[in-house]
């Protein structure tokens, strides 16, 4: 326990912690904005590959796709506030796990590495 407390007091740890919160927040907000109405998520054709077909089908659900976007924006903002960091991190887990599983299922190159 003493080792962990000493690490938490180091300036580099605090900077890394803040940087990680900022990056995660921006990543979720940007991804969420891409799911808002009238915003195209990807340029992939739905007939060329399964990834394009998946995103086309998700966009066609309408409200559900938009809900995911609004949810990502909300938790992306919440992670920046100390009071809501833990709640936001807990809410990010199912989203991140889902992205990871979809990436594997659709054989997206590179994405599983990013989400792990």
Tell me the fraction of residues in β-strands, as a range.
under 5%
Unreliable spans:
none
What characterizes the major β-sheet?
none
Span from first to last CA?
A: 27 Å
Apparent shape: elongated
Round the mean pLDDT to the nearest integer and report it.
Answer: 85
Compute the number of strand runs.
Answer: 0
Helical content class: over 70%
Describe the protein in words.
The chain is mostly helical. It has one domain (2-115). Helices cover 72% and strands 0% of the residues. It has helices at 2-9, 11-33, 50-60, 63-78, 85-105, 111-115. The model has no long low-confidence stretch (mean pLDDT 85).
Quick rundown:
This protein has one domain. The chain is elongated, with a radius of gyration of 17 Å.
In terms of topology, how is this protein built?
Layout: H1 2-9, H2 11-33, H3 50-60, H4 63-78, H5 85-105, H6 111-115
Helix pairs in contact: 2-4, 4-5
